[in-house]
Amino acid sequence: MECDFKIGLIGYTNRTSGIGNINWELIHNLPIDSICSIWSPKGQEKWIDKQMNILYQDVGMFESYLQIYKPDVLLSVETPFITNKEVFERHPEIKKVLIIMQESKASYLNCADLYIYPFPEIPDWLYLPPNTIPLFLPLDASEWRFRIRGGHSFLHIIGYGGVADRRQTEKVLRAFKRLNKAGLIIRSQKPITGLESERIKVICENSNDPTEIYWYGDILIAPDAYNGYGRHIPEAMASGLPVLTTNAPPMNFWVDKLDFLIKPSSVFDLNQAWVKTKYFEVDENDLCEKMDWLLQIYVYEYSKQARERAEQLSWNNEIRQKWLSVLRGIIEV
């Protein structure tokens, strides 16, 4: 893809984190000229030739990256390092573009020339800086191995990120036990004990293959209370898993069938640690009823529909050109 300006990307370069996977797909769908890779405990891989690896707070190396590669626009996905105003004050010629993750307090910092909310519409209750535009950030479905599902085993994923009971795992466990049938696989990035039983299996592994996490189960149970982007939902769909999730943004953007959306029983403001957002507590009875319904459906057909939906929300030439137009526009301002 031809581009008449230089795009720099700053952030994680690994396939074992959500933001790392977003960055991976950005470099494969936009003409990224250079990368400033920030160290992460989950790895710091070499992706392109024009890449500089730095530690999290290594201001000197970051300054060197800017001087060596001279990006016209610097793109970042909620990377706190981009908030270093002292460095950018010395480089006013570089335009900063921050892709907002909905739940993060970084969205409230005045540190970028342009903020991108990665969905077509901005919720009216969400406070964002005035220089924010909605611009859909797709998934790249081609990166996710599709396997058609035909059984009725549930998959529930527990990650590192977030505060409070983000995945509402306790509600999932209670609803599952009320069903008294089927099986549940819990995939966790951190060690957990005391949950395994005859019907519940816990897998705690960290694989370098991001698609491997979705090789288990037939239906993803994801009643998330909040999300920044909710990548695991379209990733699971691209892998062939129908997804049951919360009827609230951004979760209900990815899943558009009411039968697969759980109604919230209450909503409250969450302001804790680095998170500032709405917390959508799901109705446990509705969760249980929909899980029971899922045990009766023909999963094979819904598995194909999940992949089709993910492909509809994937990168294409029209979306690539729209992103380039926006980035070129901020340079010309």
Description:
The chain has 333 residues and is an alpha/beta fold. The chain folds into two domains: 7-138 and 315-332, Rossmann fold (3-Layer(aba) Sandwich), CATH 3.40.50; 142-312, Glycogen Phosphorylase B (Rossmann fold, 3-Layer(aba) Sandwich). 27% of the residues lie in helices and 23% in strands. The protein has helices at residues 18-29, 59-69, 85-89, 169-179, 232-238, 251-254, 284-294, 299-312, 317-332, and strands at 7-11, 32-38, 51-54, 73-77, 95-99, 114-117, 132-134, 154-158, 184-188, 200-204, 219-222, 243-246, 261-262, 264-272, 275-282. The strands form three sheets. Strands 3-2-1-4-5-6-7 form a seven-stranded parallel sheet, with helices on both faces. A six-stranded parallel sheet has the order 10-9-8-11-12-13, with helices on both faces. A hairpin with a 2-residue loop joins strand 14 and strand 15. Helix 4 crosses helix 7 (284-294) and helix 5 packs across helix 8. The longest helix has 16 residues, at 317-332. The radius of gyration is 20 Å and the shape is elongated.
The CATH H-level homologous superfamily of the largest domain: Glycogen Phosphorylase B
Helix segment tally: 9
Q: How would you characterize the largest beta sheet?
A: 7 strands, parallel
> Would you tell me the overall average pLDDT?
89
**N- to C-terminal separation?**
23 Å
Q: Give the low-pLDDT segments.
A: none
CATH-defined topology of the largest domain: Rossmann fold
Helix content: 25-40%
Morphology: elongated
Strand order of the largest sheet: 3-2-1-4-5-6-7
CATH class of the largest domain: Alpha Beta
Element string (H = helix, E = strand): EHEEHEHEEEEHEEEHEHEEEHHH
User: What's the architecture of the largest domain, going by CATH?
Assistant: 3-Layer(aba) Sandwich
